[in-house]
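for ur thesis appendix - Ribulose-phosphate 3-epimerase. copy paste whatever u need, i formatted it the way the template wanted (i think)
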Amino acid sequence: MSFDRSVKIAPSILSADFANFGQEIEAVEAQGADWIHVDVMDGHFVPNLTFGPPMCAAIAKHINTVMDVHLMIAPVDPYIEAFAEAGADVLTAHLEAGAHTHRTLQAIRGAGCKAGLALNPATGLEEVEYLLDMVDLICVMTVNPGFGGQKFIHSQVEKVRRLREMIGDRPIHIEIDGGITPETAPLMTQAGADVLVAGSAVFKGGSVSDPAPYGENIRAIRAAVAG
Ligand SMILES: O=C(CO)[C@H](O)[C@H](O)COP(=O)(O)O
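the 3d part is after this line
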């Protein structure tokens, strides 16, 4: 996976049909998705439960782009190997998930994945400064993690702008996650984000038997950021 600063749309399968992940992923990739975003929730770090490494391994067989795994779990370290073996290309852990983030990021890279660091909306950028050499992606949460379909938190636009300044010319992706639509996406790409996670805005109106709306929704986000 080489570094590329162009805008990438990463549909979150949290908004897909859970009984049909394989077909949903193939449909959304055929309709123009650049990456596939996989939300892992533990019912402890966030108030919702999704799935673990075996489901990720099953999902990975259907992904031909980039498998972007967002771990909303605590602790993280005991599960890194399992998610790497399940096929994660990017493995993102939350700064708030433990006291030893540097060690966690080292372990993620050591397991052969790109290392992602996610920040909750209330988390500042101070602690990120000393981790910049350890990360390939920083995910700025634009909703409180746990559920799809929430409202975009506008204060995160300024955070992304400051983060892009802090990153400078380092090869680090800025990903944004939550409430991304054709209205909010351009605010974030102008501020410096390049990976746009979108669940409800991509999957709305479509299904595996009628996937054309997925393409229309992806193109609407792309057109908004290009304009
Ligand atoms: O991480 C997440 C929730 O914790 C989801 O990826 C995110 O909320 C995307 O959903 P939507 O685009 O519907 O807001």
